[in-house]
Amino acid sequence: MGAYPQTMYFVGLNEPVGQEVSLKGLTVEGTLPPEVRGSFYRAVPDPAFPPKFENDHTLSGDGMVSRLSFNADGTADYAIRFVETARYLAEQAAGEARFGRYRNPFTDDADMAGVDRTVANTTPVWHAGRLLMTKEDGRPYRVDPKTLDTLGSYDFGGALKSETMTAHVRIDPATKELFFYGYEADGLASKTVSYCVVGPDGALKSEQWFDAPYCAMMHDFTISENYALFPIYPTTADLERLKAGGEHWHHEPELDSWLGVMPRYGDVSELRWFKGPKGVHSYHMMNAWEDETGLLHFDACLNSTNAFAFIREPSGIHIQPWEMQGALTRWTVDPKADGGEVQESVIGPPGDFPVIPAASQGRPYTHGWMLTMNPELQGPPLAGGPVGAMFNLLLRLDMRGGPPQALALPPMAGFNEPVHVPATDPAHEGWLVTIVDQQIGDNAFLHQAWVLDAANIAAGPVAKVTIPHRLRPQVHGWWVPQAQLDSAA
Ligand SMILES: [Fe+2]
Questions:
Q1: How much distance in Å is there from the Cα of 25 to the middle of ligand 1?
Q2: 72 CA to middle of ligand 1, Å?
Q3: What is the Å distance from ligand 1's center to 282 Cα?
Q4: What distance in angstroms lies between residue 135's CA and the mean position of ligand 1's atoms?
Q5: What is the mean pLDDT of the segment spanning 112-138?
Q6: Structural domain boundaries of the chain?
């Protein structure tokens, strides 16, 4: 067995950990709000074996599901386990990596043909009492929320036809329906996209397929009260390139971006395409909503190119991370028009990992949170995560135009994406829970969960839990209140 590559994707904070642990009775410092009672699930990529290819990166790592539980007695428990995907089990049996490049099955060991190669490492999704570990290149794996045991690949009881499901689902706060899509729904580099609606009981109510303008990385989407919105940015896949052993994704700056809009309970034949700027890219959207005049607003963390070096470089785009332009950007369209162009306006700073209260999903909203880089920080950011640098500034944005509020970390510290925990009093903005990583020595790190008052993040954490175990950066997380865990059990 070889060693892990000594690249930014495998050293320092990104060094593989791969240990399954269960730690009970951790001390909570400070005052834990009574509403922060439940479990914070996180998806953590962590390769169980050194990759077959030296230029592999973080997002290929086997999915681990992590749970931080806030207990009734005021303590916290921490546990992390591998998601036992078909790929993970095949590699465990062999004692080495059997699957090749990121999302290219033509580079796998020949006898792995046909084995599900998703790593379920992107978002833990909770809906209808089920916990699903998702990654957009395959179907999710269902995991026991208590034991973190893997229960197997999940296809909504045999109902799902799509070969893929996004890691970025949307849940309507009023109907409790789950809306999702899957791109490359019928095979590698295909333009086919599935669009699915799941009832509050977890039953798949509808699945429709449509063609995107081209095969794009569709990482996230949004719903509003009446519409489903599908953004298309020109990070594209090509079957011939894959067959030749190349990368799944290249970014094509000369291609147009698009926003597909349809009534969310409509037929895909009603989908209308609105053209956006060439070459832009966004991983995550904050929200979409309709104003009183009927216009539809789509708020995304937009960048001038793809944020990942492992996609830019093979595409021939050689820029430094700090040369990338970005902003929280609004695209406005008239959803009743027969297509056209988006109207673009900048509504916030550059950054990523936007968070809103679940109750604001698809509705006009007053505030949201996101991560960014502190322009005033004296000293380097903490290296780590898929981009290579951890965000070190948490923002609370007033969507009505008021000044933002910020919480800055010291040099060599970084935020993982927070989750929002609603408060019982609807007038209270609730709480944020986030993992903060801080380098405290040569390859030594302090990992803490911070609980913040969502309306007053600048005051710093109201409670903290130190996790006495090495943590690799997460991708996304999900908060599940204890009452929902209890009723699911
Ligand atoms: Fe994401």
A1: 31
A2: 31
A3: 10
A4: 9
A5: 98
A6: 162-420
Would you say residue 1 has pLDDT above 70? Answer: no
Residue from 127, 44, 110 nearest 79 by CA: 44
* CATH T-level assignment (fold) for domain 162-420: Neuraminidase (2.120.10)
Q: Tell me: the pLDDT tens digits for 204-247?
A: 999 999 999 999 999 999 999 999 999 999 999 999 999 999 99
| Nearest alpha-carbon partner for 398 in 406, 390, 386 | 406
* C-alpha 384 to ligand 1 mean position (Å): 16
349 CA to centre of ligand 1 in angstroms:
19
Taking the centre of ligand 1 as the mean of its atom positions, its distance from the CA of residue 485, in whole angstroms, is 24
Query: Residue 136 Cα, ligand 1 centroid: separation in angstroms?
Result: 9
- Answering whether pTM is above 0.85, one says yes
If you average pLDDT over residues 189-200, what whole number do you get? Answer: 98
Nearest alpha-carbon partner for 182 in 220, 130, 154: 220
Give 114 Cα–ligand 1 centroid separation in angstroms: 26
Number of Cβ within 10 Å of residue 151's Cβ equals 14
Residue 470, Cβ density class (10 Å: 0-12 exposed, 13-18 middle, ≥19 buried): middle
Taking the centre of ligand 1 as the mean of its atom positions, its distance from the CA of residue 305, in whole angstroms, is 16
Which is nearest to 315 in space by CA: 251, 256, 255, 254?
251
